[in-house]
Specification:
Layout (H helix, E strand, L loop, with lengths): L33 H4 L1 H5 L12 H9 L2 H10 L9 H12 L8 H6 L8 H11 L48 H4 L31 H9 L23 H12 L4 H4 L9
């Protein structure tokens, strides 16, 4: 919901390990940097979020009237003749976001050698997740549980978008996904696979928030999609119906819960300072 009461068509993404994202939104292939993404909620008008388009002077005036911000921006950008600028605001926001590093979940501790960190159920779920029955890892693999990551060891930049078989009504404008930028019908309904870190805490799910909980997400994928999404010609090749028992589904839920990093989610450095 934006400052004018306008609803956003997209589900808000979590910020865990956002520094590693190759692209910074659900489907825009052009937004590569956090500094560029920071401008969207401030100055975007489709939809309106913070509603500051053509009001940059008002934004700067508000910050300039706060002595604490004035001193902090001077300290952060000592060589700038005008440290409190829109450019430096985006730099400050993105620098803060790059500190949102999550890497101490129960799963991480298990991988580091603490074999007691995961329950038997979560281990069974892990095997399903990384196995060829579930095939979850194809889109949600790697250390950040997504197929679009960028880090020091990245050989080349891979940008991938997927149609995950949601009902086609979920892909009409402005939720056409990659199609909204390429206008290629084969790209309709394709979105970036989000990281699954801390996924237990980030309901609802999908690009439009149309699935309420993790079990419903699993049911969506075991069904090979939802509604006419099961026959969508753009549906990703790894989204196909397969069978899981109810206990196996619960095992998969337990594994996904093991990706929660309470050290990160309770870190006082990320609390509201006001």
């Amino acid at each position: 919901m934006g400052s004018t009461g306008q609803s956003h068509p997209r589900n808000a993404q979590h910020l865990s390990n956002i520094a590693y994202n190759v692209r910074q939104t659900w489907a825009n292939p052009l937004l590569k940097k956090l500094e560029d993404q920071a401008r969207v909620p401030m100055f975007g008008d489709n939809p309106v979020e913070l509603g500051m388009k053509d009001r940059e002077d008002l934004l700067l005036e508000r910050l300039e009237n706060d002595p604490d911000y004035v001193s902090k921006f001077k300290a952060a950008f000592p060589s700038d003749s005008n440290p409190l600028s829109i450019l430096n605001i985006t730099k400050a926001l993105s620098s803060f976001q790059r500190t949102f590093i999550s890497g101490n979940s129960a799963y991480d501790r298990y991988q580091a050698g603490d074999l007691s960190a995961l329950s038997a159920s979560a281990i069974r779920g892990k095997n399903l997740f990384f196995g060829e029955r579930g095939e979850c890892f194809h889109c949600h693999g790697g250390f950040n549980f997504t197929d679009t990551i960028l880090h020091l060891g990245t050989v080349f930049e891979e940008v991938t978008f997927h149609n995950n078989g949601l009902d086609s009504s979920r892909f009409v404008s402005p939720n056409g996904g990659l199609y909204e930028f390429t206008f290629q019908e084969s790209d309709r309904g394709k979105f970036r696979a989000p990281s699954l870190r801390n996924v237990e805490l980030t309901a609802p799910y999908m690009h439009d928030g149309s699935i309420p909980d993790l079990l419903s997400v699993i049911n969506h994928y075991t069904n090979g999609g939802t509604g006419d999404g099961t026959t969508n010609p753009n549906r990703d090749v790894f989204v196909r119906s397969f069978s899981l028992s109810e206990s196996e589904k619960q095992d998969l839920v337990e594994f996904l819960k093991s990706l929660t990093d309470t050290e990160f989610t309770t870190n006082p450095k990320f609390e509201d300072p006001f």
